[in-house]
Amino acid sequence: MAANRSLGRDIVIYLATDPTVSIGGGFTNPTFTKTTFLDSLDVLITHDLPLRVYKINDGRVRIQRTQDLLLPGEYEVESDGHMEVTDAPYYKRTSSAMSSLSASGRVRSFPASVRNRDRKCVITGVSMTQRELLQQRWTGYDAAHIFPVALESMFHNYNFGELVVLDDRDGSVNSPQNGLLLRKDVHGRFDQYEISINPNDDYRIVCFLDDSLGLAGRQLDTICRDIEHPHHVNDNIIFWHFQQAVLANMRGAGEPVFDEDIPPGSDTMNAILSGPAPAERMEFELSSRLGDVIRAQGSLLIK
């Protein structure tokens, strides 16, 4: 079964042009500020003039960009121009942890570069111990792709390949500027867009469901975004992830959360085909796994 992101929402959003039909919603939590809400609405709603947002039945007080927490309730959005819910695509994804098939050549350079740059989980701020660093023991951490490997062709369509620094071994999507070192438990939430980063709000960490990890007030660690570092993470790619998180969690009923805890020996194909969006998920899984094989084979040709 897939988790339903909309169950229990305490934020409901309406457009003033049709105040009887909700266009989506979300959840209040200690990371979800009024600024985060307004930035999310700029992603959720296409508009040619500024939006104005009011809490319904609250004296028509306009919501301003502040770090005050958003309160539960119903919110109405209006504008003097045209506005409608965006039809921007949402791309389903599964875990992007580097598999054993990707353990050599140019693909191996991705986790190595991300580890050397970050040396901590850049979302929680939990640092590697000196012993872990000495032994190069990364068992609790993943080098996570921000933009998924399985969508590599789209990486170029967004022109992200032109925004990252490459060496003679790296494919664009495996640039460390498309990576973050994350604790394994954080990585899963990041890949499912439950957690994201808003680079337009001082790189604040945003939880779109619950702040079960106590991330309120945290910002993306400066170690990975130091512009003096040649492999600093790219803001445009981070914002793409934030946009996807808004679409996944706040548009309509939200997107299903895939259950990846398939026990060993189980029928993986049947689990995928009996779950939500089976065709799209199967296409993504095949693209991701075959991509690993192709990249690993290609790495053998690189000296």
Provide the fold topology.
Blueprint: E1 11-15, E2 18-26, H1 34-44, E3 45-47, E4 51-55, E5 73-79, E6 83-85, H2 105-118, H3 130-135, E7 141-145, H4 152-157, E8 179-183, H5 184-191, E9 195-198, E10 204-207, H6 235-250, H7 268-273, H8 278-299
Parallel strand pairs: 1-5
Antiparallel strand pairs: 1-2, 3-6, 4-5, 7-8, 9-10
Helix pairs in contact: 1-6
> What is the end-to-end distance?
45 Å
Order of adjacent strands in the largest pleated sheet? 2-1-5-4
Q: What gross morphology would you assign?
A: globular
Mean pLDDT rating = 85
Largest sheet: 4 strands, mixed
N-to-C SSE string, H for helix and E for strand: EEHEEEEHHEHEHEEHHH
Roughly how much helix do the residues carry, as a percent range?
25-40%
Integer-rounded radius of gyration: 20 Å
How much of the residues is beta strand, in percent? 15-25%
* Class by SSE composition: alpha+beta
Low-pLDDT segments, ≥5 res: 98-106, 291-303
Number of strands: 10
Number of H- or I-type helical stretches: 8
Report on this model:
- The protein is an alpha+beta fold.
- Helices cover 29% and strands 17% of the residues.
- It is built from eight helices and ten strands.
- A four-stranded mixed beta sheet has the order 2-1-5-4, with no helix packed on it.
- The protein is globular.
Structure in a nutshell:
The chain has 303 residues and is an alpha+beta fold.
Question: What tags apply to this protein structure?
Answer:
8 helices, single chain, endonuclease, two-stranded antiparallel ribbon, HNH_nuc, disordered C terminus, four-stranded mixed beta sheet, alpha+beta, 303 residues
